[in-house]
Amino acid sequence: LRAPPLSAGRAGLSRAEPRAEEEPEQEEADGSFQLYPGHIPTSPLQKALLAAGSAVVALCDPYRHDMVAVLGETTGCLALPNLRDKMKHDPEGYRILQERPRIRLSTLDMDRLRGLPDGTLGREYVRFLEDNKVSPDTRMPAKFVDDEELAYVIQRYREVHDLMHTLLGMPTNMLGEVVVKWFEAIQTGLPMCVLGAAFGPIRLNARKLQVLATELVPWAIRSGRNASCILNVYYEQRWEQSVESLREEIGIFPPP
């Protein structure tokens, strides 16, 4: 069941960033069109080359977030429309597509989130950011997706990634990232997530591999299959909801 609509006071924990008016398409020198600010039009061949190059670099260094971002954009041509359709057919997901919320330091009231009770989504999200020394502002803007709406879908996926860590209770070390990638691979079908889930474990030692294979991956797969679409949750309006109740609502099983 979805949580009831929140009061204006709860929604106020995120400062809504006004959605920019759509700009007219700008024609590039080669005759292609820029569909949104920062968009870089590319041909299928160029996308294939970008995908191959970024995959090699990302596999060698999983913390090259710029290459991981390029890989996600250039290989998501089937998964992204499917995710958009799921959002359009869900009331909360549809509203997210219409309002285009962003999770950035400029839209978050960090002091108020930090002051929420322990166990709430907002408090635990800020705790995750501080404990792991990460920032929502490090998420790369979409560039190579040749559809303005799909570009927002992958941007939204990136910006809720840290919330997946929070809900799954996983840190940002290699083991935690692999577990989150397994969950996201089942949820989104993005090839970038599948590759991360498949090849990330090669960097783990034998003890961590055993824990991953016997406990964490089976749990992540079961949770990914059981959970509703993670992009259909308006997290900015759930900050005061407990992590436990949100897990139950979405369908994520408690961490092992």
Automatic annotation (TrEMBL):
Alphabetically ordered keywords of this record: Lyase, Membrane, Mitochondrion, Mitochondrion inner membrane, Ubiquinone biosynthesis
Any one GO BP annotation for this protein: ubiquinone biosynthetic process
Domain of life: Eukaryota
InterPro entries membership: Coq4, Coq4_euk
Listed GO MF terms: lyase activity
GO cellular component: mitochondrial inner membrane
Region listing for Disordered, in residue ranges: 1-34
Protein name: 4-hydroxy-3-methoxy-5-polyprenylbenzoate decarboxylase
